[in-house]
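Quick one: examine the sequence and fold tokens given here and explain what the tokens say about the fold. Here goes:
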Amino acid sequence: MQLLRTNALILLNVVMAGVIVGIGTFGKRYRYHPFTRFIFLGATTLFLPIISSVISTVSSSSNDYAEILGDQGPDDARVVICSENLSHLILVITWAFLTHITMINTSTVVAGDDREGRNAGVPLVLLVQGGWTFYLAVSSKLENQKDGPIVNDLAESFRAIQYAPFALICAKIIFKYYALEKARRSIAFGRNPRLIFGYMQQLQVQEASQPSDPSPPPLLVMGEQASHVKKQPHGYAFQNDLGSATASAISNIDGLMTIDRIWEYDEDMMLGTSGVQVKDICLSFSLFKLLRCRFARYNVSKVGTMGTLSFLWSLFLKDGEHVRIFQLVADELSFLDDYYYSSLPISFSKWWLPILSVSISLSTISYCIVTVSVIQQWATQGEGLIDGQMFCYYWCSDTHRTTDGGQQLGLPIIDAVAPCLLIALIMISEVKDLASYQCSNWTKVALFCHFVNNTTWQHSFQTRKWVGIILRCRWKLMMKHWDEKIGQCSVLVLHQRRPTQFFVPLMRLLRFPERKKNVKIPEAVKICIIRALRSVRNGGLSQGTSSLRQTQAGERLLWACNGKGTSDTILVWHIATCIFEHQQAACHKHGSPSNLDSEHKIAATHLSRYCAYLMVSLPELLPDDDAWSKDLYKAVKKDADRVLASRAAMESSSTPEDKCQQLVELLGEGSKNEELKNGVKLGKQLVELAQGEEEAWKLLAGFWSEMILYVAPSDNLKGHSEAIARGGELITLLWALLFHVGIFSRPNETDGAAASTAAGDGV
């Protein structure tokens, strides 16, 4: 029974380690869900009790004597002596150390500014747990353990590496602690928002006497050092060795890299690498630093400069740059995701820390390979697997008989398989860390900035070649943060499918969001959004009214934009878009020409369903009260489902157009909800539009492109940070994009309101 419990605990720990590594490496989108966080916390909490129980049981069960008296008294006694095999004890200790390495690899430390509230220190409990495990291992009486001849030949070689994992545990924890402290005190990392805020104020003062132009601004990228700055009332400011703080003096600071210097670099110097792509990554890194000021709750109106705005607008106004613009902001958010939710950035606080981290990872991998090799030799030496986990010897007094060589008990395969499974998990996490250093954008920015600053590297053909290889390195499986997908949801499910999933009630009980359809963002959506963004520069944000006012047909639809809030307007236009799409599909089935490849149709339908998805899944990121928005959606959805459930009588209609017409009439007459009725009314107007189908889709695409930009500004920093942690959302990307072009709030809202959610946060 004791062996059974020990083996069960060992396997349970391996399963929990697999869950932790799986969530941390591949299930990032769900890592911060309440249920998965509960599983994660529970697994990490149970590690130490399980390890303590297993090692204590194994070490204390050596030389257990049991005397059994027979029916005839002492003359009929039987003695049983049991002891753990040496192989079992050593492999259990190895399993315990490997478990700690798994926990350390999945722990996250963050060096944020105090205003950001993102600090996550080194979990010193892991060091305490490692020390406790080491104590349990050392206190085990290895010299009293007995084993068969198959194991003794390799026992000494295994003992030599038995405690190597403890050295790796100490090295990993000390490394994280040192890197964290350096990053926290660094002007370029932990205290960077204070410097960026002060630096942008310096640029604003200098720009007051200079006309702004679309040339690249001197935004900071890398190279900030404490010796180049001075403290001021609201952060830090730059000064050179002579005390000057002009733009030209700052740009001449040794080692400091700014966007204007990077933009001037000759792309032909790079071998086999797109210079534009590398420069864009550096620009994304610079924008990431500005966005950190937003999360640090600085006054956003003091973060931007006219030069920055002119440069970014000149980039956005170029035709055919929609993919590049989206990639710029996506890379920026990936930097933010790394900084707030991974341990990678702190390794760049000193140039030699990545090298040390890689060395520790390689040492861990080497140890894993050696351990697997020894286990393999141990398990296959002689006749095969060792005979058992426990050795028992008994003696009978009445017959004076003893066992010949004793008897082996237990399942030795568990001793071999459990460490090997943990080693596989450790190898996965270590390879991921190595790939992060080689393929991450952090490495590319640091390497490229050092390359631009180092003329010796630039004149070396071999150096340029190797730098180009590293800059081209990509690993989408591990390094991609946003999959460029958007959720799709609809109030009107015209082709109802009964849910057949067995796990739907369980998903609801565990507070998992209902499964929504996720689709790749079509290029047409990006084109229409950037087109709407360009019109915003002069006219400001609107609830779709600006595009409607451009045509006479659109003027007649303006009544549908006069809702009590934004959410009801979204629902009215969403219902109308669904009805119009359904009607056009019915016409095409009956022989009318199809317009399936229409850019406007693709953009309108996808953005309409995405806004509906936001209402049901992320209402906290919309302008209206999140509870009101969600309740409104549920009420409209419930009313629509009730009406659609009674449409069975129309199935005998002769043509698809007749079915569609009956459906529209049924929704209009049978609905009790005002938003549903208005949506049906608007849908009829779109169907009856004299200018034709394409004009209607153009109006809808313009409306939805403006609407998604209108709802993007938000002061819910927590909601957007959680969206970034889950893998990203289109609305968060647009929120960051609008921030960089100087749009912090909607019309009739106080500019800069989004900068702070608590009194006194603005500076």
About this structure: Residues 61-74, 142-151, 751-763 have pLDDT under 50 and may be disordered. Residues 524-711 form one domain.
